[in-house]
Each structure stands twice: as structure tokens, then as C-alpha cells.
Amino acid sequence: MKNVLVIGSTGQIGSELTMKIRREIPEGNVVAGYIPGAEPKGELLESGPAELADVRNAQQLADIVEKYGIDTIYNLAALLSAVAEKKPLLAWDIQMNGLLNILEVAREKKCAVFTPSSIGSFGPETPHVGTPQDTIQRPRSMYGVTKVATELLSDYYFHKYGVDTRSVRFPGLISNVTLPGGGTTDYAVEVYYSAVKGEEFVCPIAPGTYMDMMYMPDALGAAVHLMQADPSRLVHRNSFNIASMSFEPETLFAKIREYIPSLKVRYEVDPVRQAIANSWPDSMDDSCARAEWDWKPTYDIDSMTVDMIACLRRKLL
Q: Which of 212, 254, 270, 290 is deepest in the core (most CB within 10 A)?
């Protein structure tokens, strides 16, 4: 992995992943791919090349790969779960037709491809506690449907054409850098902002709703580590369960109150997000990722909370 294209480089994951890869492989080109209206700014723009990269434009993607000698594509283009329910046709177009364009370019240009899946790829019939690596996947959201199809299509291109496709099933991701954009687990980011700013937090997810979560540094580490892993060890490819912590809202709020006792919360449950959350696992079994490429998270809920609050205080106050 030397010359890398990060599609969706200004999103919640992409903005941090692009910078991480640039720091780790400074001798290569790490291209920040973006769409109109989401142009990179600041350090992301100044620290390396940036190109317009719409996944629905196959020729545009092929031109970037050719121009920079791209060997690895990180495909982070997606509408998150709650937004995808409001715009299902657009979600399908970006996440499936866009993926097909990327895989075809990768087949022709000999690129490796990382396209993340999600806990959203599971459904109500999936075992919710200790969700196995290989289990039933029957999601009832458009986001989830596209993620299952992403896993299958990526596997198809590996077995049929030898395209080096790899991915993980991300849990809810918590970051202090870029706000999320319409996911079911967003509450676990937004409450930290409210706590630090001294505002009341309105929670759209009901108490008692457990979901897997992960601090962004661990998620970024997984995305890079997997693409650098020895392919001969990989039994699975698309996609690996990875896990770090599982909690419900009251557990998170109690942890934050250990450091900011004044946090005030009230509930206004969003029925769309709640229905999606109810269909997702409480916790995933990530033993395959640990065995096949030595996955291991660094953060738990306490160390994450300490770091989130410190970073947001520097950022907001």
C-alpha cells in the first residue's frame, strides 16, 4: 500500500483516515477524493493531493487511479442508516452502483479495495449477543441491505477476478474530529458535545438499547491494519466483525457524569432510528479478526470518555 485513493475523504471516517495514511506512508500519494459541496479544507487539503471522485462516475475514478498510480482504494462513499431510509434509491445508487464502478476499475487497474460493512448488515433474526462472524444476515433497512450486498459483491470480485477486497463490519463510531451524518449510533457522539458545552442532550435512542461502539482511533487502525495484513492468513475477507465496547445510553451517560456531573438528558425517541437499533446486535464476536490479522482494540468506554472530553474541551471552549 503506497499510492492510495480515499473516496469520501471529508466524511466522518475519511477525514481522519486520509490524514492517518498520509502520516504513515509519507513517500506515497494519498489522494483525498471528494464530491461537489464536500471539498477538503485546511490540513486535509494542504497536506496532499485532492481530486473530484464521484463513485457514480467510473471514468473519473479510472483517471485518478491512472494519474497517481493508485494501488489501494478506500471506498467510504455511503449514506448512513437514518439518511438512507429517507433516500433509499440514492443510497442504492451510491452504495451499489458506485461500488460496482470501483470494483471494475480495481479489476482493470489491479487495485486493492476496502469497502466497510457495518453492524447494520445484520437483522432481527441474527443472534444479538456475541453475534458470530458467519451468521444469518437479513437486515430490514436499505443501509443494511446495501451492506450485505457490498460484502457479497466484494467477495465475488475476489473469487471471480482476484481483486484484493477486504473489509470490516464497523460498529457505531465515536469521534471528536468530524460529526457523523445521520447514523443510528450518532447519539453516542452528540452527547459528548452537549456535555462539554453545558447543554441539555435530547436522546433519540431508548434506554436499554445496547449497541456495539468503537472509538475512532481503533476504527482507523483496523482499516489500515487489515489492508496491510498477510493475505495468506485471511480465511474471511468481506467482512470481519470487529468489536471494542457495547453499552446502552444510560451506561454512557453515567460514565460521562463521572467527569461532567452536570450533564442533563431527556429522551425523545426517534421511531425510525429506534427500529433500526432494535434490529442490530448488542455485541459482536470478533474472534476471527483477532485470529486472522491480530485485531485488538485499544480503547474502552472509560479511556474513550477521558480522551473525548479532553479533546472537545480544547476544540469547543
A: 212
SS3 266: strand
- Give the whole-angstrom CA distance, residue 78 versus residue 96: 9
Q: 44-65 in b/e burial notation, b at 16+ Cβ within 10 A?
A: beebbebbebbbeebebbbebb
CA atoms within 13 A on the CB side of 309: 18
Our count of domains for the chain comes to 2
Within a domain: residue 276? yes
Q: pLDDT tens across 219-252, in order?
A: 999 999 999 999 999 999 999 999 999 999 999 9
Active-site residue, selected from the candidate residues 143, 157, 192, 215 = 143
Instruction: State yes or no: pLDDT of 28 exceeds 90.
Output: no
What 8-state DSSP symbol labels residue 199?
P
Alpha carbon distance 51, 146 (integer Å): 26
- Locate cell 429506534: which residue? 274
Residue 234 sits in the same domain as residue 266: no
Return the bridge partners of 268, or none. Answer: none
Residue ranges making up the domain that contains 178: 172-213+245-283+294-316
Q: 209 is written with which cell numbers? A: 438499547
Mean pLDDT, residues 130-144 taken together: 96
Which pLDDT band holds residue 182 (cuts at 50, 70, 90)? confident
Calculate the average pLDDT of the chain. Answer: 96
143 tagged catalytic: yes
The whole-model pTM stands at 0.94
Whether 289 is covered by a domain: the verdict is: no
Pairing, β 245-247 against β 211-215: antiparallel
Q: Partners of 202 in the beta sheet?
A: 266
